[in-house]
């Protein structure tokens, strides 16, 4: 059956002030102002670049028809289409403008400062959108971080349907873009015999697993590999190595491994993924990345509470998961000669009661391996009393790195 030819409903002359936002292998996205009478709205216009061949025109029409059928809170809404935008040969898509951009940019901008509740909300939105697609007999086929838009209140919206497959017609809408290799299921690649198949529902599940990898670790899957190397790894049934830093605990890693199984039928359904994050998964607080607290510290005083030749302590506030906690930031700084014991005098201010005015700390920083022992020596040298010292040594829990400094956070237990 030939696709219906919907008439463009937005005049190109009503789209003003175009600014190129992103550019892909087959399309460009512009930020524009849509004028309608006295009102104006920011929109995104997707300009497709396929050439003038009629077969590509059919793909565009199929995508438009598919978009018109989709209606879900986590699927980006198609406002309409327009012709001859920026001299384009095909109809261009018009969507609401998302000021926070896509998930890839969102993670790159916020780094490890994204709070756990926000991560969970994002992945639930993604799973909810994919669940809707699969129940509608639609395979997304190109699910990656760049095809998840971030809207107001950090809500996630699926986009990028140029590779989608309508299972009712078994027609693939487009061809893969180079950036999606890190998120694509192994069965989607052309094998050595040149055979290729349409993406299947289980292919989306593999992609969700890769998105989970990106959201919770802050790193792209295969971040240190080139596209050609990734395909070779997938052909040998290898998946990305588990990222360090504690952003992904054992329970979550096992679930990601299930999603990325090389046997498609062993992967969970989108409904099961949504169920996992709504009711089953409780993030472990034991595994916290050594680098993920740097941007969460605030109210750091310019002058330390305790200072010494090796280190200083400042009382500050740690904001994580929407809560503020008073902590002591213990900062070890490598100063002086690295190969000799370096004595230092730790000055203690009058704020803690029953504390000495100074305490001598000695230690050696001859090798990075000795750093842990050196930190314990410094901490013990600044202790107000034995109980405070035990609390510091026992409750060491978080690390932050900044330049040549290493920060250790302790609960703010001052007597």
Structure write-up:
The chain has helices spanning 54-69, 103-110, 116-135, 201-217, 227-235, 250-259, 270-280, 371-381, 386-394, and strands spanning 15-23, 27-36, 39-48, 80-82, 92-96, 138-139, 148-150, 156-158, 165-166, 171-172, 297-298, 306-307, 311-320, 323-333, 344-348, 358-361, 398-402, 405-411. Helix 3 packs antiparallel against helix 4 and helix 4 (201-217) packs antiparallel against helix 6. By secondary structure, it is α+β, with helices and mostly antiparallel strands. It folds into three domains: 12-96, Phosphorylase Kinase, domain 1 (2-Layer Sandwich), CATH 3.30.200.20; 103-280, Transferase(Phosphotransferase) domain 1 (Transferase(Phosphotransferase), domain 1), CATH 1.10.510.10; 294-411, Phosphorylase Kinase, domain 1 (2-Layer Sandwich). GO terms for molecular function: ATP binding; protein serine/threonine kinase activity. Keywords: Kinase, Transferase.
Overview in brief:
The chain is α+β, with helices and mostly antiparallel strands and 415 residues long. It has helices at residues 54-69, 103-110, 116-135, 201-217, 227-235, 250-259, 270-280, 371-381, 386-394, and strands spanning 15-23, 27-36, 39-48, 80-82, 92-96, 138-139, 148-150, 156-158, 165-166, 171-172, 297-298, 306-307, 311-320, 323-333, 344-348, 358-361, 398-402, 405-411. It comes from Suillus subaureus.
């Amino acid at each position: 059956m030939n696709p219906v030819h919907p008439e463009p409903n937005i005049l190109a002359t009503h789209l003003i002030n175009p600014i190129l936002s992103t550019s892909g292998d087959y399309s460009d996205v512009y930020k524009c102002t849509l004028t309608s009478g006295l009102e104006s709205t920011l929109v995104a216009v997707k300009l497709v670049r396929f050439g003038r061949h009629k077969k590509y025109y059919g793909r565009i029409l199929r995508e438009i028809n598919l978009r018109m059928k989709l209606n879900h809170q986590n699927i980006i809404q198609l406002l309409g289409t327009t012709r001859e935008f920026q001299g384009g040969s095909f109809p261009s898509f018009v969507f609401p403008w998302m000021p926070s951009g896509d998930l890839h940019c969102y993670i790159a901008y916020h780094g490890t400062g994204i709070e756990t509740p926000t991560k969970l909300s994002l992945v639930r939105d993604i799973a909810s959108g994919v669940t809707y697609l699969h129940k509608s007999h639609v395979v997304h086929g190109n699910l990656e971080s760049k095809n998840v838009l971030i809207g107001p209140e950090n809500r996630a919206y699926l986009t990028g349907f140029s590779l989608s497959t309508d299972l009712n017609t078994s027609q693939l809408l487009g061809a893969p873009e180079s950036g999606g290799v890190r998120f694509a299921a192994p069965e989607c690649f052309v094998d050595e015999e040149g055979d290729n198949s349409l993406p299947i529902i289980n292919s989306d599940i593999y992609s969700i697993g890769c998105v989970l990898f990106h959201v919770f670790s802050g790193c792209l899957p295969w971040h240190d590999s080139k596209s050609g190397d990734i395909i070779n790894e997938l052909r040998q049934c290898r998946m990305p190595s588990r990222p360090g830093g504690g952003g992904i605990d054992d329970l979550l890693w096992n679930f990601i491994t299930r999603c990325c199984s090389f046997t498609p039928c062993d992967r969970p359904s989108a409904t099961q993924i949504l169920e996992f994050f709504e009711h089953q998964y409780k993030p472990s607080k034991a595994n916290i990345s050594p680098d993920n607290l740097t941007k969460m510290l605030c109210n750091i005083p310019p002058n330390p509470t305790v200072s010494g030749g090796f280190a200083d302590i400042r009382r500050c506030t740690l904001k994580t998961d929407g809560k503020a906690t008073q902590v002591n930031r213990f900062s070890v700084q490598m100063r002086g000669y690295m190969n000799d014991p370096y004595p230092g005098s730790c000055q203690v201010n009058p704020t803690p009661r029953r504390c000495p005015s100074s305490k001598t700390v000695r230690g050696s920083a001859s090798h990075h391996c000795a750093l842990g022992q050196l930190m314990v020596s410094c901490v013990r040298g600044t202790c107000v009393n034995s109980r405070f010292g035990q609390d510091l040594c026992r409750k060491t829990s978080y690390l932050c790195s900044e330049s040549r400094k290493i920060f250790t956070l302790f609960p703010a237990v001052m007597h």
